[in-house]
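Async update (no meeting this week)

Hi team, since we skipped the sync, here's where things stand on the single-chain job. The sequence we agreed to prioritize is pasted below, unchanged from the tracker. I ran it this morning and attached the output directly underneath so nobody has to dig for it. Comments welcome in thread, and please keep replies under the output.
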Amino acid sequence: MRAAVFRGSSSPVAVEEVQLAAPGPGEVRVRIAAAGVCHSDLHVRQGDWQLPTPLILGHEGSGVILETGAGVDDLAVGDHVVLSWVAPCGTCRPCTLGQPVRCLTAANVVAPGGVLNDGTSRLTVDGQRAYHYLGVSSYAEEAVVPASGAIKIRADAPLEPLALVGCAVATGVGAVRNSASVPPGAHVVVVGCGGVGLSIVQGARLAGAERIIAVDLRREKTSLAARLGATDEIDGSAGDVVETLRTLLPDGADFAFDAIGGATTTRQCIDMIGVGGTVVVVGIPRAGTQVTFEPQTLVDFDQRIIGSNYGGIDPHRDIPQLVDLYMSGDLFLDELISARRPLDEAGQSLDDLAAGATLRQLLIP
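Output:
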């Protein structure tokens, strides 16, 4: 098959011929319909995170089951699926406690990475072992993934836009619903209006938030946020963002979501919350990024700083629900897609993402 191969930050991402082995026990082979281009892929390309190479990029995607491995009885050839980069084992302590997003087996797949749940790879390039990215590797014509990471969805839903549900949308909406439990009437600020940030905006709207304030350096992104549910916009390039927020919400926000994950934006979110407020760090920073704050302030004002990994979702529960919300017209996905591109443009799509000019791009094998 053809796949986008990453060989190191000093080499361009290029589409090559790659060998994909048949699925092993508990695995499935999927024909990729679409793969989303995410900042997590960009972090790898930029060398922010160290992973084994050669690596097949991509962790957000959708497709159709082509083949099932031994022991797979809940999926069949022809099923439509959204790929989840957390493929819960179902047997570790977090899984048995109903917290599959914290699965210990999946955590070992994510870091140090490069393998599937059994610790091995199904990929070969030029006779050399190649590696999976986050257990998915969706920048390819096909993928072999753990069956628990292939989430069956309704067959009448269009597969291309639903690729976004596998990461950006689940992460953003889930951060509101699961990690923060935003109640109706809340005042929410979202810093960063890319695919994840715009999904946070939609999650806040679905939760019944009273004020949703969108912050970004690009006016076109905050304008889109307003169409998706934001009540106010802040131009992040004009003046002091925290001061502007405080003019809109003198008592501060109840929830401040950092959809970027940078030292500056997390610090801004800390300064934006009021009494009882919560900062939710959703965007993933470069390794080693540090932010300072005063613990006394957190105690005095009963504030919280929390992280949200993959929106705290249960993939088998939340992904089909998000698909239903899209099909009912309550969740907007098509508006998040700025381009559909052939697989050969994977490298260029990452360049465009780095430039900040795009929302979610889809690679269509």
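Quick observations from my side:
The chain has two domains: 2-166+332-364, 169-310.
The domain at 169-310 is CATH 3.40.50.720 (Rossmann fold).
Reply here if anything looks off.
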